[in-house]
UniProtKB/TrEMBL annotation:
InterPro entries for the chain: AB_hydrolase_1, AB_hydrolase_fold, AB_hydrolase_sf
Source organism of this protein record: Lentzea rhizosphaerae
Protein name per UniProt: Alpha/beta fold hydrolase
SUPFAM superfamilies xrefs: alpha/beta-Hydrolases (SSF53474)
Keywords: Hydrolase
Length: 230
């Protein structure tokens, strides 16, 4: 799977992926908050590895970055995997909430308050203690400047329907059945925006199927890649 690139969710890091062989870059806030900057980071990684065309996947924020990359360089993507994400821009209230969290993390730093504010919405009711511990650790390990930057960048992201509708590659849309942030009906809207989408619901998972159901997640990826030939 050396042509598989997976981009992590907010406010986590590459440890959320348990997919041997996949390239899982860490996304870091640099300069003016904008997801295009993260797309540039990913493209630089592809260039360093001489990867002309990849299967690109992203969970939540990682999905937004994948869409930004497609906007920049559609020729670099031969397949897409969207996990618990959406193609629409934030509503004003959602954007305001992101800015409020960014302001607070700059004042107070990363701590238990951030775990309490995010973890309940990230995991489903059946998540294992191992999954909960991993997510908690990842949250607490993030740099405050990255958390604030990511939130501000996501708050200003554009709607990506036009980009996705024009893309002629196979796509896999996965969503946890218990996802509170981007529930199955939102994933369904994303799937119909794509030309060649396979849409699947992951049982016993919330917003992070790769963490909550890693074996199931890997099996779905492998099956889809064989089916569509990427």
């Amino acid at each position: 799977m050396d042509d598989l690139v997976l981009l992590h969710a907010f406010p986590l890091d590459a440890r959320m992926w348990d997919v041997p062989g996949a390239l899982t870059p860490s996304l870091r806030g640099q300069g003016e908050p904008d997801l295009d900057a993260l797309a540039s980071q990913v493209l630089a990684v592809l260039d360093e590895r001489n990867l002309d065309s990849v299967v690109l996947g992203g969970c939540s924020m990682g999905g937004y970055v994948a869409m930004a990359l497609v906007r920049r360089a559609p020729e670099r993507v031969k397949g897409l995997i969207f996990v618990d994400t959406k193609h629409t821009a934030d509503a004003p209230e959602a954007a305001a909430n992101r800015h409020a969290m960014a302001d607070r993390v700059e004042r107070e730093g990363v701590g238990e308050w951030l775990v309490e504010a995010t973890l309940p919405n990230l995991l489903g009711p059946d998540a294992s203690d191992t999954a909960r511990a991993l997510v908690r650790t990842m949250i607490l390990d993030q740099r405050a400047e990255d958390v604030a930057w990511w939130q501000r960048a996501m708050a200003k992201r554009p709607d990506s329907a036009d980009v996705l509708e024009a893309l002629d590659v196979p796509s896999l849309v996965l969503v946890g059945e218990h996802d509170k942030l981007t529930p199955p009906d939102v994933a369904a809207k994303l799937a119909v925006t794509l030309r060649h989408a396979t849409s699947e619901r992951v049982e016993n998972a919330g917003h992070l199927p790769p963490v909550e159901q890693p074996e199931d997640f890997r099996a779905r990826l492998e099956r889809w890649r064989k089916q569509v030939g990427v």
